[in-house]
Amino acid sequence: MFVFVVCFFATAAMAQEDCPRGALDKRFCDRDGDLVADAPTDQSELVDPDTLIFAYTPVEDPEVYRGVWEDFLAHMSKVTGKKIVFFPVQSNAAQLEAMRAGRLHVAGFNTGSNPIAVNCAGFVPFAMMAAKDGSFGYEMEIVTHVDSGIKEVEDIRGKSLAFTQPTSNSGFKAPSAILKAEFGMEAEKDFTPSFSGKHDNSILGAVNKDYDAAAVANSVLNRMIERGVVDASQLRTVYKSQTFPTTGYGHAYNLKPELAEKVKEAFFTYEWAGSPLAEEFSKSGEEQFIPITYKEHWAVIRTIDEANNVSYDCQ
């Protein structure tokens, strides 16, 4: 009995050592050290569905983007040989839960949600939109109505500031860290926070004076201005951050490797010229998909999370 127990614990220790995971949920392994979940080694755990479910981050009205993504998804269908269904998620939480539960196979997660999606849902990001010259990113801006009386960040003290969702980088995590580090300002103590749910809600709230100020992604703001949804002359920017990576596109970790490669191929072979994607995303300067890695491109976001004491505890 004694020998059996010793062998059992030795085997368990070896298995644990063979499955390093860092911040990843206990369901995943990261043997190559790239900070994302490895594909399962057990072939029975790999999935090869007849229909792939795709979801774009719920930055704005998801139904607006069904048509924007239609041509791209038709291209992905040809490349993968699969039927593709657009899933119009209403919140970051719903998108995260869908991938964690295996109901979502390919997705674009917003900047701030990427670390949670990677660590809790097995998301493997590999692409990002970029300009023709390869440059990419957006900035967090704190905006206010031109008649609000707010002309600098300090003027927000004692007033209301709209965030989007707790998982959003530019809509919550980055402004929270910046306001505390650079201005000594904290929610509830120095200003009244609220959560609008989406960037477009925050922007419209600032325009309509529902909020004294709002922290938003300027990529969304620029697209709304280009579409004529808001008038740029009604808003004033009182803070602009460093550049952050944009939405990360990727697949679920347990897709059959051959299928995962086909999904990647679909992104990098898509013809942007004259496409609905080009028409929509050129408003924020994006004209192609470029390859990225979570380890490199999301380092600044992980640093912001650390400054906000964010832990990737998977519930």
TrEMBL record:
<comment type="similarity">
    <text>Belongs to the phosphate/phosphite/phosphonate binding protein family.</text>
</comment>
<dbReference type="GO" id="GO:0043190">
    <property type="term" value="C:ATP-binding cassette (ABC) transporter complex"/>
</dbReference>
<dbReference type="GO" id="GO:0055085">
    <property type="term" value="P:transmembrane transport"/>
</dbReference>
<protein>
    <submittedName>
        <fullName>Phosphate/phosphite/phosphonate ABC transporter substrate-binding protein</fullName>
    </submittedName>
</protein>
<keyword id="KW-0732">Signal</keyword>
<dbReference type="Pfam" id="PF12974">
    <property type="entry name" value="Phosphonate-bd"/>
</dbReference>
<dbReference type="InterPro" id="IPR005770">
    <property type="entry name" value="PhnD"/>
</dbReference>
